[in-house]
Design a protein that fits this description.
The complex is a heterodimer of chains A (174) and B (430).
Chain A (H helix, E strand, L loop, with lengths): L9 H21 L3 H21 L3 H25 L2 H6 L7 H21 L17 H10 L3 H22 L4
Helix pairs in contact in A: 1-2, 2-3
Chain B lengths: L2 H7 L7 H4 L2 H33 L15 H11 L10 H18 L17 H10 L1 H11 L3 H32 L11 H10 L11 H16 L11 H4 L9 H26 L14 H8 L1 H19 L7 H22 L1 H30 L5 H27 L1 H13 L1
Helix pairs in contact in B: 3-12, 3-16, 4-12, 5-6, 5-7, 5-12, 7-8, 8-10, 8-17, 9-12, 10-12, 10-17, 12-16, 14-15
The chains are: A mainly alpha (174), B mainly alpha (430).
Chain lengths: 174, 430
């Protein structure tokens, strides 16, 4: 008698994760202390990883945690810890240009709402995942090495260039 | 009995509680694992001090209880009663949060560790990715602790720790990928990231991955074994807490219960990474030679091992009891040690019951393999001097990383050797 576990309280978790992501996203820009901002950013990234899990994309969620939270954010913190925070805390955090800021926010917001309302036909919501839950990783791998081979290779070339660039910039004498 | 209790006891259920979707049994497993790991950490604490002492021709703890057996309890009491100090100028929120983050990261890993085919909290299809990802969150706690202490030594310790962990994670990941590649050598040609799936792949291929494609599996295992010591900040890579240079590294400013949370996290992380190594390369919960020495006779013989181990422990304890000094002052301790041995013998007797014997076999072999790894950890600490930081970085980036890439490529080539051979032959014929 094999029993398949059904998802529990999906709506609750969706709103909890998105709410936390937005809240910590706001904290990232409002905290004066850069380390606190970085910690809030980590929380945002973890919430996004949770949302990926809810979309039946466990592989993307795992990679999100390993790369962003475990790798990139640790390096962020590594740098921030060495910065003199006292000076940064005395600086003004926001420039006072409220009018352009509000206009830009309103413009972007209207754009989002318009796309959400009008664009439903041009961007159809994806149907229920056609990939079986257990084979997500295999499906991602097969797509990467067949349909999306070219973008994948371009992306890896770009990363290679970035690595070489970093070495060239960091080393005085090669 | 209600359905939610009986459901998982069904003999036909061959999945973990998480996969079966039984919250009650998942909770039971979580509690058992949490208590078991905490108990193991306490035992490990005593064993480490004792074994290190014997390696250095000392006695180690001898005062509290017979052979210092009650020392961990005394230490725990002391730590709980100590004042919990937050230094002035420290960022108190981050300071108090850091040990909790470390514990959360470490204990989340135990969700997917398979102590047996059904003895895991759950089985994820991204199991090994989840483990690597979550265990890399532990470094965040260390960095937070070091920064929030507002003190020089912890900051340097945290910097060292983050640099070290980020560098060794890469070599570790490459070694893990080469083991995952080996799981795909089946008829369908698809591998798996699930911890249970990886062990089952080793069973299906009739070999532990450490012996697969000799010596490729062995080299990958070696890379992981070195990286895992660095990842858990243990000697000889314990630079983040090098006491001769940094007092106690990132947890210098912590005291009392919070300090003990760091210790708990460190030892629990050691158990966690050891179980990753065991699952990937050493056959997980499988007993030795499950294919070559199969059949009811061998099954019976190997199923007696758990009981025999406990009888051996009991015999050792009784021998020590007889050697206790015959002075009236030691009478209570002698009786206590004898009772301890009796408990071991009783556990051994319980493990002889056929129903129990069959259920705990997998768990026994898994824990026995973990015990070997933990002994190795102590052994390293007693043997190797501490590395210098530039040497540590050199080993990570210039030795382990190229080795990892080489092993990964060679594993792929050897795994596809028939296909490559066919391809070359076709090239020649064209």
């Amino acid at each position: 008698m094999q029993q398949v576990a059904q998802p529990v309280a999906t709506t609750f978790f969706f709103y909890m994760l998105s709410g936390l992501a937005i809240l910590s996203g706001v904290l990232v820009i409002t905290r004066k202390n850069a380390v606190h901002s970085a910690l809030a950013l980590i929380l945002t990234l973890l919430c996004v990883a949770g949302l990926y899990l809810m979309l039946y994309a466990p592989f993307v969620a795992g990679v999100q945690i390993i790369l962003y939270v475990g790798g990139i954010m640790v390096l962020f913190l590594f740098v921030i810890m060495l910065v003199n925070l006292e000076r940064a805390q005395k600086e003004k955090q926001f420039n006072q240009q409220w009018l352009p800021g509000i206009l830009a926010a309103l413009g972007l917001g209207t754009l989002f709402v318009l796309i959400f309302v009008k664009g439903k036909s041009s961007f159809p919501l994806p149907a229920a995942p056609s990939i079986a839950e257990g084979s997500n990783t295999q499906a991602v791998g097969q797509l990467l090495y067949s349909n999306y081979m070219f973008p994948f290779e371009i992306a890896s070339l770009l990363l290679l260039v970035a690595i070489i660039g970093a070495v060239v910039m960091a080393k005085k004498r090669i | 009995m209600p359905n939610w209790i009986t459901s998982y006891l069904d003999k036909n259920v061959h999945v973990t509680p998480g996969v079966y979707g039984s919250p009650f049994w998942a909770l039971v497993y979580i509690l058992v694992v949490f208590a078991g790991v905490s108990l193991a950490v306490v035992c490990m604490n005593w064993l480490e001090r004792k074994i290190l002492a014997h390696m250095q021709v000392r006695l180690g703890p001898m005062r509290v209880g017979p052979h210092g057996l009650l020392q961990p309890i005394a230490d725990a009491l002391k730590l709980i009663l100590k004042e919990d100090i937050v230094p002035e100028g420290a960022d108190s929120f981050v300071f108090l949060l850091a040990p909790i983050i470390i514990l959360l990261a470490v204990f989340s890993v135990y969700c997917v560790i398979p102590f047996g085919p059904t003895h895991a909290i759950t089985d994820m299809n991204i199991g090994i990715l989840f483990m690597l990802g979550v265990s890399s969150l532990g470094v965040l706690g260390i960095v937070m602790a070091g920064w929030a202490s507002n003190s020089h030594y912890p900051l340097i310790g945290a910097l060292r720790s983050s640099a070290q962990m980020v560098s060794y994670e890469i070599a570790m990941g490459l070694a893990v990928v080469s083991a995952v590649l080996m799981t795909s050598l089946n008829a369908e040609g698809t591998g798996t990231l699930s911890m249970i799936g990886i062990v089952q792949a080793q069973y299906a291929q009739h070999t532990w991955f450490v012996f697969k494609f000799f010596p490729l599996g062995l080299i990958a295992f070696f890379i992981f074994a070195v990286a895992m010591v660095a990842e858990t900040n243990r000697a000889p890579f314990d630079l983040p807490e090098a006491e001769s240079e940094l007092t106690a590294g990132f947890h210098t400013e912590y005291s009392g219960l919070r300090w003990s949370l760091f210790m708990l996290g460190e030892y629990a992380a050691m158990i966690a990474v050891s179980s990753i190594a065991i699952t990937l390369w050493l056959g997980g919960w499988m007993r030795p030679f499950p294919n070559a020495l199969s059949g009811p006779t061998w099954d019976l013989a190997f199923s007696l091992f758990p009981a025999l181990t406990f009888f051996g422990l009991a015999a050792m304890t009784f021998y020590s009891t007889m050697r206790m000094p015959k002075h009236a002052f030691f009478r209570v301790q002698t009786i206590g040690l004898g009772a301890f041995g009796a408990v071991f013998a009783l556990i051994g007797l319980i493990l002889l019951v056929p129903a129990v014997r069959d259920r705990v076999q997998d768990v026994y072999w898994f824990i026995a393999k973990i015990a070997v790894f933990l002994y190795l950890y102590i052994w390293y600490r007693g043997t190797f001097p501490r590395y210098r930081f530039d040497q540590l970085m050199k080993v990570g980036w210039k030795v382990l990383l190229p080795m990892g890439i080489g092993v990964l490529m060679l594993t792929g080539i050897v795994g596809l050797r028939t296909e490559i051979w066919d391809f070359l032959q076709r090239l020649v014929h064209v």
